[in-house]
Amino acid sequence: MSPYRYATGSAPAGDLDVFSFEVTAATSYTLATAVDVNRNPCHTLLHGRNTYLRVYDANGGLVDENDNASPNNGCAALTFVAASSGTHYVEVSGAAGSAVNIWYLWID
Asked: For residues 55 and 91, what is the distance between their CA atoms, to the nearest angstrom?
């Protein structure tokens, strides 16, 4: 996935969706899930969505992870600076293994 692209999916309880994307060393990347293509936040009570993000480097080392972008937003979001160029992986799941209806993943 290149910057400013998105993927969509759903996650039954315990499901993990994994995507690869290329990074350039010393570059900042922001990854976030949203409720729709307009990047509306996941209000857990309203939308029933609570996502979890994990980013891994090419060797499988955990780079960063996030549960909620803010106290009122069940969508996950994180920003990291790539230590080296190459392939990274993002894992999207429901928080605490819960099911998530439809989600959208953005990488900027």
From this structure: 6
Instruction: Note whether 77 and 69 are within 8 A (CB).
Output: yes
Cα Rg, the chain, nearest whole Å: 13
| Contact of 49 with 42, CB cutoff 8 Å | yes
- How far, in Å, CA of 7 to CA of 106, rounded? 7
The whole-number pLDDT of residue 1 equals: 44
pTM over 0.70: yes
CATH of the domain at 99: 2.60.120.380
Domain with 80, as residue range(s), is 5-107
- pLDDT at residue 61 in the model: 97
DSSP state of 60: S
Count of domains for the chain: 1
Q: CA–CA separation, 21 vs 7, rounded Å?
A: 11
